[in-house]
Structures are given as structure tokens and as C-alpha cells.
Specification:
With 174 residues, the protein is an alpha/beta fold. The protein has a single domain, classed as UDP N-Acetylglucosamine Acyltransferase, domain 1, CATH 2.160.10.10. 28% of the residues lie in helices and 26% in strands. A hairpin with a 4-residue loop joins strand 14 and strand 15. It is elongated and about 65 Å long. The N and C termini lie far apart (55 Å).
């Protein structure tokens, strides 16, 4: 019973704290100007290392530990084995909502990972990746050229100003 209360208290505590503080408390290594909207740093958060300007959306999961149940049952020499490996993320990376990053993954610099992707192995710098498993979509330069019409200077607008601007831009005003 007491363990259940402690577990609930700890979960609530982590939900109240700023996400970057949760990451630091859990042992995640990260650089300057990082912004997290997730607290799911896996069972070995101390094996996650990120550079500067890394941003995650909500519901991003970092998985440094993979189960080996069937292998343990078939191969006696693996009866006590775990698959545990680090996750390394470079500088200037945006990770979309609902992304899962698996153990033994390296993400380069200047990368956008699309929402809902499952990322494994190596993600090259200056690229957009998305999908399950995440695959190369295009370079950042190609993405910029294809999507210029959808870029809007809304970053410093209030919620109300942003709403008005976007409703007008996309002709949603009734």
C-alpha cells in the first residue's frame, strides 16, 4: 500500500515540475536551450544524451531497455541478459508528438522527427525523418522549399492574435 502511495506521489510530483527539471533529476544529459513536453525518459534515463536546442512535443518516449523474455527462455546463456543501449541526440533537433526513440539510436544535428514516428539506429544530420520505422523524407532545405507557403510569423503572437491571423490566412472566418 505504502509503495503504491509513494509511486502515485512521485508521478504527481514529476507532472508538476518543469519537464527539464524532471529530465535532470532522472539523469538525462542535455545541453542549453532544451525544451521538453514529456517525462517518459525510460528505465535508464542516464543513458540519454542530448545536445543544445533539443525540443520534444508531448508523449515522446525514450526506450533504452528492450525485453528479451523469449530469448532468455530459449537460450540459457541469456537467462540474466538485458538489451540496454544509449540514445544520443545532436544539436537543434525537434521531436514530434508521440515519437518513440529506441535503444541504440543516434540522431544527428539539425533534424526534425515527424509525429508518431518510431526511431531506431542512425538518423543523419540536416534531415526530416518520419514513419514507422522512421525513414528519411527529405533534407531541411528541401522541406523549407516545399513548405514556404505554410510558414507564418506567429511565434511571438498572443493566442488570440495567432487565432485571428490563421483563421484569416486560411479563410476560416465565417
Amino acid at each position: 500500500m505504502i509503495n503504491g502511495i509513494i509511486s502515485v506521489s512521485r508521478t504527481l510530483y514529476f507532472r508538476i515540475l518543469p519537464k527539464s527539471m524532471v529530465a535532470k533529476i532522472r539523469g538525462v544529459q542535455f545541453g542549453k536551450n532544451c525544451n521538453f513536453h514529456t517525462i517518459d525518459f525510460g528505465s535508464e534515463p542516464y543513458l540519454i544524451k542530448m545536445g543544445d536546442n533539443v525540443r520534444t512535443a508531448a508523449h515522446v518516449s525514450f526506450i533504452t531497455h528492450t525485453g528479451l523474455g523469449p530469448l532468455r527462455n530459449i537460450y540459457p546463456e541469456l537467462s540474466n541478459a538485458d538489451f540496454i543501449a544509449p540514445i544520443i541526440i545532436g544539436n537543434n533537433v525537434q521531436i514530434g508528438s508521440g515519437v518513440t526513440i529506441l535503444a541504440n539510436t543516434t540522431i544527428g544535428d539539425n533534424v526534425i522527427i515527424g509525429a508518431g514516428s518510431v526511431v531506431q539506429k542512425e538518423v543523419k544530420s540536416n534531415s526530416i525523418y518520419a514513419g514507422i520505422p522512421a525513414k528519411y523524407i527529405c533534407s531541411l532545405d528541401e522541406f523549407k522549399e516545399k513548405n514556404m507557403k505554410n510558414f507564418s510569423d506567429t511565434k511571438n503572437l498572443s493566442r488570440r492574435e495567432k487565432k485571428e491571423f490563421l483563421l484569416k490566412k486560411y479563410d476560416f472566418i465565417t
